[in-house]
Amino acid sequence: MAQERDTYGIDIAGIHRELELFEIKPGLRIAILNILGDVELVQACAKALANKLSEIDYDVLVTAEAKSIPIVYALAVETGKPYAILRKAYKPYMGDAIQCETLSITTGKPQTLFLDEKDRSLVSGKKIVIVDDVISTGSTLQGMHMIMEKAGAQVTAEAAILTEGERAKWSNVISLGHLPVFSD
């Protein structure tokens, strides 16, 4: 039987969700947004983010796997822009991939991001919008920036469904809302 958890209610792009709170370290909990399988929320967020990005000059959308894949795909459909996924594991078919190490708040462990050789040509010399589901500590964001720099791409904007934590830290991120962190 699943443990009953406290939740945090939020309205995102006109849709209400109750996000479960998970302890990530003693005395600190975060609300978890999991868009995987939530077609209604993903489509609403993609439309809202596409509207907010309409004044931005960019060529390609980029995200890191895995939870952000639905939003970047739906955003690509809405905007007609191509997208690239930074992978978390290297596969031989990825060829001469660019890599960067990052630390995720949700896993608490170092992760390596890889830009597939085929996607290098997609982003090289292009204007990029980095997309994430939730930007919390900024470590994945930093890793995506480093890979785009190595690939010769220019990041013109950062977008997320939600930001989390210190709101002022994310004032430059195009988002649909903000989550607090919960300390005991």
Detailed description of the structure:
By secondary structure, the chain is of the alpha/beta class. It has one domain (38-178): 3-Layer(aba) Sandwich (Rossmann fold). Helices cover 24% and strands 38% of the residues. The chain contains 4 helices and 12 strands. Helix 1 (39-53) packs across helix 2. It is globular, with a radius of gyration of 16 Å. The relative contact order is 0.19. The model has no long low-confidence stretch (mean pLDDT 92).
Topology:
Layout: E1 7-12, E2 15-25, E3 28-31, H1 39-53, E4 60-64, H2 69-79, E5 83-86, E6 98-103, E7 110-115, H3 117-123, E8 127-135, H4 139-150, E9 154-164, E10 174-175, E11 178-179, E12 181-183
Parallel strand pairs: 4-5, 4-8, 8-9, 9-10, 9-11
Antiparallel strand pairs: 1-2, 2-3, 3-12, 6-7
Helix pairs in contact: 1-2
Give the gist of this structure.
The protein has helices at 39-53, 69-79, 117-123, 139-150, and strands at residues 7-12, 15-25, 28-31, 60-64, 83-86, 98-103, 110-115, 127-135, 154-164, 174-175, 178-179, 181-183.
User: Quaternary arrangement of the chains shown?
Assistant: single chain
Q: Which geometry do the CA atoms define?
A: globular
Name of the CATH class: Alpha Beta
Q: Could you give the count of β-strands?
A: 12
Q: What radius of gyration results from the CA coordinates?
A: 16 Å
Largest sheet: 6 strands, parallel
- DSSP helix fraction: 10-25%
Number of domains: 1
The fraction of residues in strands falls at 35-45%
Helical stretch count? 4
User: Remind me, CATH topology?
Assistant: Rossmann fold
- Low-confidence sequence ranges: none
Q: Which structural class fits the helix and strand makeup?
A: alpha/beta
What would you say the CATH architecture is? 3-Layer(aba) Sandwich
Q: On the 0-100 scale, what is the average pLDDT?
A: 92
State the end-to-end distance: 25 Å
Q: What is the chain-wise order of helices and strands? A: EEEHEHEEEHEHEEEE
